Amino acid sequence: MLSVGRAVKSGILQLPVRLSGLGSPSGVQMFSGLGSPSGVQMFSGLGSPSGVQMFSGLGSPSGVQMFSGLGSPSGVQMLSGVRRLSGGAGAAGWYSSLSDSAPVHLCEHYLVSVQQVSGLPWWLSIIVATLSVRTLITLPLATYQMVIIGKVEALQAEISELAKRLRYEVSIRAKERGWTEKQSRFQFKKNLRRIVSQLYIRDNCHPFKASLLIWVQLPLWISVSLALRNLSLDQSVLQPEMASGGALWFPDLTSPDATWILPLCLGLTNLLIVEVFSLQRVSPSRFQRIMTNSVRAVSVLMIPIAATVPSSMALYWLTSSLVGFGHNLILRSPAILKILKLQTVKSESPYRDIVSAFISKYFK
Question: CA-to-CA distance for 246 and 49, rounded, in angstroms?
Answer without folding.
Answer: 25
